[in-house]
Structures are given as structure tokens and as C-alpha cells.
Amino acid sequence: MAEAGLDAVLVTQNADLFYFTGTIQSGTLYVPVTGTPLYLVRKDAGRAREESPLRDIVPLAAMRDIPALLGAHGHPAPRRLGFELDVLPVAFYERYQKVFRDAEGVDASSLVRRVRMLKSDWEIAQMRAAARQADAIYQRAREIIREGMTDIELAAELERAARLAGHPGFIRMRSFNGEMLYAHVCSGPDSAVPAYLDTPLGGVGPHPSFGQGAGWRRIQPHEPIILDNAGWAEGYLVDQTRVFAIGELPPRLMRAYDDMLRIQELMREIATVGMNCAELYERCLSRAQELGYADHFMGPRGAQVSFIGHGLGVEIDEFPPIARGATDFVLAVSMAFAFEPKVVFPGQGAIGIENTFHLGPQGLEQLTFSDERLVTVG
Amino acid sequence: MAEAGLDAVLVTQNADLFYFTGTIQSGTLYVPVTGTPLYLVRKDAGRAREESPLRDIVPLAAMRDIPALLGAHGHPAPRRLGFELDVLPVAFYERYQKVFRDAEGVDASSLVRRVRMLKSDWEIAQMRAAARQADAIYQRAREIIREGMTDIELAAELERAARLAGHPGFIRMRSFNGEMLYAHVCSGPDSAVPAYLDTPLGGVGPHPSFGQGAGWRRIQPHEPIILDNAGWAEGYLVDQTRVFAIGELPPRLMRAYDDMLRIQELMREIATVGMNCAELYERCLSRAQELGYADHFMGPRGAQVSFIGHGLGVEIDEFPPIARGATDFVLAVSMAFAFEPKVVFPGQGAIGIENTFHLGPQGLEQLTFSDERLVTVG
């Protein structure tokens, strides 16, 4: 904050509030460049006091009261004030600008996201627990996948299992218009259908009003069944994808799966401290192209996404992006990211793998651990 | 749009895109004051063409291409351009402002929301189907509620049932930081705990990172078990709340339930075409105060919300608000809204009712229809 010339940052978005306060209440957290943060809470201040370790928590009746409350807690009026402009709607920002008439508003979203990008040992421990939940859901899928069941029937059973295992049933996605369920469960040709999300796989979904994930298709033999699911523990996520099939898959898909494992292997070799995230992306993309997947890698031709991995934690789409042009991001100790090489064959299906990794002091550690072999069921 | 002096509105948010295009794809819909809308689609244009009845759908490679694509389709450069500034993040708005350098940006969110506020016969038919789904979930709850089961166990079963009945598993809430599941299922004292949402009831939830709805409490006899659930059909929602109990409830809660039915009855009498929504709110609030609920109505003291009802359809929080100060909204034919008089007794529980209504040419019609008597189970 000092480097960015900021006097304070006003944190208002749910995921950021959870990260900085340990709870999510309606209100705003004032984080000054020096001194103690002040949590101004509309609803509910009592819960904020119970759930947050922060010392300074005060009820907030109206936004116009903010300057007086800051003054009463010894905070001088800020001249340069940071906001999460990547997520804050314009109408809210304009209201804050009226409250802080004499302050210059600055985009602090990158700053906030870069703080959150580096995970503590405690956060990584939660993500390890989330990996155990992701594995339990994968194990449950092994048990229940049957020919003729719909993708939605499979999803409903896995979502129920996740919920009983503690999953809150909600995935936070930072992107504007980001909407996501616990898991994407898609079989055969449906797994190759692109959707509006910035994800390599989309899925048909139950209806055009929610055209992603599981649809009404019945699972058939000899086609890939994709389970891309977000395990959860104590507010933290991991991301894992595994593929199932009833009987054998066509040779092209089998070969593609092995090739995606090869790209994961390449990433494991080169993802070391100091590696630029754009270079990591380009080298893995080049390998996919060499292997013959230029028109299939990370989405069907015309709907390919420009990343192979993404940071994650409280949100499913955190820093760093392992993406085209992500030259501002260099791998460093304490980062965590998902890596998901996948290929899509329209009309046939999608295949690939995803795991969540952590860059520890001893190098890359894999947090998700479910068996990486294709699962043949039935 | 002509009245507001707008040359066009740029629609980008998922719910609005679904309303105006019949699909949700990543991109933007350009709606000119005269002429044919143009849907500019990043991902996926093929799906947009399959799912949308709109004629003019073109792929969009980059935002900077928008002016040229508009020109190629005969649209003059807009001078006053509307945006959904209630939901559009500042960073996106700034990018659009660079694309439309010569246009003045105007907040069109109220305009968009007022168009969506009036429901067609087709939309009401979907909401009737959604009411049937809400009733099916209520019936399922009657069957499965048992002493000793946790609220989360009950929620998991009901969510599974809703999913198998077609519910996509995602509820759209327009408010910034709005997050919601299919249903809030809360029992006893947990039902009286306020949360960050702008809702009369909150719930403890599974964890401070998602502190709303069902938690780990076990259902006991003689306490209210609240089921507030959003039925879904073809992208449309209804909202319904019913209360269950194992054995009898304490007299104070029984009386409060009857009193909430009385407030619903008052609303049914006075909610006619031409009634101001602020007045409707004030008259129902006054009745609640007369009945002795000043400190309990629509939330526990200190966390009371300032509304008793809300429009709904594609989103759970549409216009009109039946709320303090909602003087700009007057009941008119074709509106649909949920009405939810509820009271909260900290340490004991919450109780109340919610139904979804439609103002038809013949007057107020109730869309949700589950039995309104308190359900005694076990």
C-alpha cells in the first residue's frame, strides 16, 4: 500500500472480507496503511464480533457515517483510497466517492489479489483438507456411475455427498458474471459443448438459463465422463478433474488422455520458482500443439480459452493466471494453483486432467491426490 | 429509452442477457433505440445462434472490435449509451468507456429492471410451474423431517430433490455480494440468527465463510423448522416459506404465526393496482407494530430489514421492492412479487410465511399454493 501511495484500502467484496476478517458480514473493512483495520458492519455486527479476531468492529447505520466513524477511531481522512474496482459495481463506487469527496479513488484490486495469492501454511493445510473432500467425491463417483443415469442424476448424488461432507454448496468466482456449482459433471458429446464461462469445458447444463455443467443426457458406454469438482474446507477450495468411462474409450481419446498427463509432467518439471507464468503457459501450449492438439486444446476450435491454470483459494479464480500474456506473474514460494490440460473433440467428448499444486520451500507439491489413471467402471 | 434520451443500451449481465436473448453467452447485447438488437458474442456464438431467437448474432474477438461491428450492422455511433451500472464492475465500465470514447455513459439499470418488472403471460406460466416445484420440495420436507437430523442433512435431501426436478442449483441474486442457495433450511435458535444477506432470516450456515442457511444443528421437537425455498422453471423463480414442527410450538410462536397470516391477509386486501409500494410496506409494518412485533418483525432487533416483499422472476431480487421509501413503485398489472411477513425471537426461532403473487387483470393471484397451515410432523 505504501509503495502504491495509498492511505487506505476499503474492502467490500465477500471473498476479500472473509480473507481479511475471518467472517463475511455486510459492510466494509477500512485497512489503513498504518494502524489497526476498522470493520464497519451494517449486518450483523454481533456476528462479526463473534466470528472475527479483529479488535475494532463497529456497527454502521448508513454509508454517510463512515468518515465520522473513521475519525472517531483516529484515522485521518484518506487522500488516496483503494477500492476493489475489478468487482465493485459502478453505482456502489459512486456512492463511496460521495462519502469520500476529498479522496482520490484508486484501483487496489491487483494489490488485494496479490496479497491473497501467497498462501500461509494454515491456508495450505485447509487446501489439503479440501483435497481429501475432492477425493471422497471422486470415490463416490466411482461407486455410483451407471449406464443410463443422466449427468444431472450423477451430479445431484455427488452434490449431496459434498454437502454432507461440509461443502457449503456455493463456489465463489471473482469474474463478473462468474457462476459455478460444486462440480461439472458431463458425459460424452455434452462434455465437448462450450459455455459462457471462461473454462476449457462448458457443458450443456439443464437449460439455456443455466447452460453449463450437467445436462439431461444419459451416460453411455465408451465415452468420457468428466468430473471437475471443487473440494472445500474452512472456506478454501481445490480444483480436481478426473475421467471415468464405462468400458473402453476410443483410441483417440485414450491417446489424448496420456498426452494431457505428459503436459502435466512437463509443467511439473518446469514450474519452479522464478518461472514466468506466461512462459509456463506458452511452453505447455507449444507441447500440446506439437502433439497435434492445436484445434482441441483448452476448448473446441473457436471457443478455446487462453489459460491452462489458475490460482485458487477462497475463490476459484485467484492469482496467478497461468495464461497467455500473464508476464506480470512469476512463480514464487507460497503460491497455489490448479493446472488443467484438457482437450475437446466436438461431437465425441472432452478429456484431460486437473490437479491443484502448491509451491513450497522444497518445490512443487501436489495437493489433490486422487488416482490419476482413467477410471473404468461397470 | 427514447424518454431517457438514450441511443442504445449495452446489456452485459447474465440475468439481463437471458431475459433479452433467451440464452446466456459471454458477450454483450447492443439494444438500439430503433432497429434490431445485435448480440456480440465472445463465447459461444454457435450456442447463441442455437438457443436465441435473435437474428443478429456475431462473434466478438475483442472489445475494441465493437464499434466496427456496430457500424457494419448499420448502427450509428451512440452519443448516449446506457449500461447496467448497478451490477457492472468499475473496471469493466472503464474498458467500455475506452471503446466508446465519444459516448456519454448513463445508468440504464433502472430502465432495464423496470422492463423486466412487468411479466408476460408466458413468464407467469413459468412461475406457476416453479410454484409446483416449490410445492414438491415442501411435500418432500413433510416426508423426511425427523428429530435429530441436522439442518444440513435436511437441506442436502431437499436440494437433491430440487435438482432432480430440474432446478439448476443456482439462484441469481442481483445485489452486489448476493449469494444464495436453493433453499434456506434452519431450525430453532439457528433460524433466528441474522446473516449478511438483505433478508429477514439469515441462518448460521456451515461455516463463517458461508454464514447463511442450514448449519450443523440437530432438529429438536417444539421448535420452528423454516423452509424458505425458491422453486424454478425455465429460468424463472418463485419464493415460498413454510414452517414445520415436531410436536407443538410454544404459544408465543403459534400466535406470531397466526399474526403473520393476518398481515398477509391485510396485504391481499390492499395490494391493488395503484397502491404505492412504500405505503403498502408502511401499512403492513404498522399492523405488525400494533400486534406487538416492533422488535421482531423482519429480523431481530438491530438486524431488521426494511422491506416485506420483493419482485422476482429471473432473479430473486427484482423490482418492485415492497419497502421503506419505495415511493417510486406503484403496483400495476403484470407485476409479480414475493411477500414474506416474518418475525424473529432470538434464542428461540423465527416464524412466518412467504408466497409469490401476481397482479393480473382480475386482481391479485397467488402463484405459490402449498398448504398454509403450520405442518406438525413426527
Describe this structure in words.
The structure is a homodimer of 378-residue chains. Chain A has 378 residues and is an alpha+beta fold. The first copy, chain A, has helices spanning 14-21, 45-51, 66-72, 90-99, 109-117, 121-144, 151-164, 251-270, 277-290; strands at 8-11, 26-32, 38-43, 57-59, 80-83, 104-107, 183-187, 225-233, 236-246, 307-311, 318-323, 336-339, 342-345, 349-352, 355-360, 363-366, 375-377. Chain A is elongated. The termini of chain A are far apart. The model of chain A has no long low-confidence stretch (mean pLDDT 97). At the A-B interface, helix 2, helix 4 and helix 7 of A face helix 2, helix 4 and helix 7 of B.
Strand order of the largest sheet of chain A: 4-3-2-1-5-6
Structural class of chain A: alpha+beta
How much helical structure, as a percent, in the residues of chain A?
25-40%
Global outline of chain A: elongated
Total number of helices of chain A: 9
Oligomeric state of shown chains: homodimer
Distance between the termini of chain A: 57 Å
The pLDDT mean of chain A sits at 97
Greatest interface (CB-CB under 8 A), with counts per chain: A-B, 67 and 67 residues
Q: What is the N-to-C order of secondary-structure elements of chain A (H for helix, E for strand)?
A: EHEEHEHEHEHHHEEEHHEEEEEEEE
Poorly predicted runs of 5 or more residues of chain A: none
| Cα-based radius of gyration of chain A, to the nearest Å | 22 Å
* SS strand fraction of chain A: 15-25%
The largest sheet of chain A is: 6 strands, mixed
Quick one: how many beta strands of chain A?
17
